[in-house]
Write a structure and sequence with these properties.
Layout: H1 2-19, H2 33-36, E1 46-52, E2 55-60, E3 65-70, H3 77-88, E4 91-94, H4 95-104, H5 111-119, H6 126-144, E5 148-152, H7 158-167, E6 173-181, H8 184-198, H9 205-228, E7 232-236, H10 241-253
Parallel strand pairs: 3-5, 3-6, 4-5, 6-7
Antiparallel strand pairs: 1-2
Helix pairs in contact: 3-10, 4-5, 4-6, 6-7
The chain binds adenosine-5'-triphosphate (ATP) and the ligand O=c1ccn([C@@H]2O[C@H](COP(=O)(O)O)[C@@H](O)[C@H]2O)c(=O)[nH]1.
Length: 256
């Protein structure tokens, strides 16, 4: 049975790599094949899940559930996601972490492009980010069966939104969008403090200014878009991490 599944996914994978992004979009579909090599299509109905060393079971699943987590840099998205994972069993996928991992991957042809964007607070083309996210979702589902995801720090601009909508929206159930609201001053202080030990090339005053400009000029419109769809759950992120999490808990507690 495993080999049947393996053969099936391999052939579907070739199809996926060939057709997943329109070659005309920015004329780079071939470029992204390296990332997509391991991306398998998300299941629409069911997936086989390994449960224990002595056997497997078929788990009938709906579409993977997705919560987007948005907010300015340093608003505490990652901190809260860790708590949500522990309490509610989601898998946390940080788009920024995935991009940093791809940047650091030996042989990545996108490393320089990703770093240039990160340092300047600009947004990486969606083809890269979306492929990394889809890949991570598929790997998680296959490895653990967990199909509930916190997608942290994505979508951040119109390009992200369009790319996700055309490629992924039909394959997932969008639960809601968690929006952490926090002032620029407070967020900047947090990131500068984090910068003392994070090693991040963008936790400095110059990059932070640019990241905030991108947030205001590009990401706020995406949050507004989801507000119009009544999907946004807004949280005051200026309090302590535990106090913020009290609010977060009420939101996840309301979910079925
Ligand atoms: N509620 C809070 N109060 C004070 N400090 C916080 C709070 N939440 C997080 N922090 C700290 O602020 C810094 C940024 O937090 P975190 O990494 O969770 O933010 P983020 O929104 O994921 O940031 P980015 O988008 O830049 O990755 C971290 O050093 C974290 O420990
Ligand atoms: O979807 C995304 C997410 C992130 N980026 C780039 O990465 C940095 C850092 O992101 P964090 O969420 O703060 O870890 C961000 O400023 C962007 O340059 C991206 O391009 N697309």
């Amino acid at each position: 049975m495993t080999s049947v599944i393996a053969r099936t996914t391999t052939s579907v994978l070739h199809h996926h790599i060939k057709h997943c992004w329109s070659a005309t979009r920015i004329g780079v579909s071939k470029q992204f094949a390296n990332i997509r090599q391991t991306a398998l299509p998300l299941p629409s109905k069911s997936i086989r899940v390994s449960t224990c060393p002595f056997g497997t079971k078929y788990s009938v699943m709906g579409k993977p559930k997705v919560v987007f987590v948005l907010g300015p840099p340093g608003s505490g998205k990652g901190t809260q996601c860790e708590k949500i994972v522990k309490e509610f069993g989601y898998t946390h996928l940080s788009a920024g972490d995935l991009l940093r991992e791809e940047r650091n991957r030996e042989g990545s042809e996108f490393g320089a492009l990703i770093e240039d964007n990160i340092k300047n607070g600009r947004i990486v083309p969606v083809e890269i980010t979306c492929a990394l996210l889809e890949n991570a979702m598929n790997k998680t589902i296959q490895a653990t069966g967990n199909d509930r995801f916190l997608i942290d720090g994505f979508p951040r601009n119109e390009d992200n939104l369009q790319g996700w909508t055309s490629k992924m929206a039909d394959k997932v159930e969008q639960q809601f969008v968690l929006f952490f609201e926090c002032s620029e001053q407070q967020c900047t202080e947090r990131c500068l403090k984090r910068g003392e030990s994070s090693g991040r090339s963008d936790d400095n005053a110059e990059s932070l200014k640019k990241r905030f400009n991108t947030y205001i000029n590009d990401t706020v419109a995406i949050i507004k878009h989801y507000e119009e769809l009544q999907l946004v759950k807004k949280i005051d992120a200026s309090a302590s991490p535990d106090a913020v999490f009290e609010h977060v808990k009420t939101i996840f507690g309301e979910q079925k």
